[in-house]
Amino acid sequence: MGTSYRNIKSFHPFISLTKFAFRKLIFLIALYLLFMIFKDVKREDFHPSFYPQH
Length: 54
Known about the structure:
The protein is an all-alpha fold and 54 residues long. It has one domain. The protein has one helix at residues 2-46. The chain starts with a helix and ends in an 8-residue tail after the last helix. The model has no long low-confidence stretch (mean pLDDT 78).
């Protein structure tokens, strides 16, 4: 039991680092998706065919 606990303790920094990297990755993906949606909206605003009165 003692050895397995020590193994878990030695692995703990790696696990927390992976969790942190995973959270950062999700944040970056969300930011990228928001940017793409914003870009699409901007392009639609300036697109002439988007408006019926042309």
